[in-house]
Design goal:
Length: 95
């Protein structure tokens, strides 16, 4: 079952997003293995990122093997605070 993640960065900016994205999605033409959707943009008071993975397991693998290790090293110009996170099992995904 598909699994969705919503990250909200209070006070986040496009520039911080671009710096962070470059660290965790180095190839802008493809998504990480298991990720089937990625959207991001400004939202009230910050920046929101929405990702959908083909399963909770693929999200956890990406989080644990790519996202967290790269962010823990620090990303120059990246988001200054951790996101507020919501996760959910996707009931309906239309493409």
């Amino acid at each position: 079952m598909a699994y969705g993640i919503v990250h909200y960065f209070p006070g986040g900016t496009k520039e911080q997003y671009e710096a962070s994205l470059a660290a965790v999605h180095p190839d802008r033409n493809t998504l990480p293995e298991g990720q089937i959707y990625h959207a991001a943009g400004p939202s009230a008071g910050g920046w929101t990122i929405i990702a959908v993975h083909d399963s909770k397991e693929s999200w956890e693998r990406f989080r644990d093997q790519t996202l967290l290790p790269r962010l823990m090293k620090g990303v120059e110009g990246g988001f200054a605070v951790p996101p507020q996170e919501q996760a959910f099992e996707v009931h309906n995904l239309q493409k």
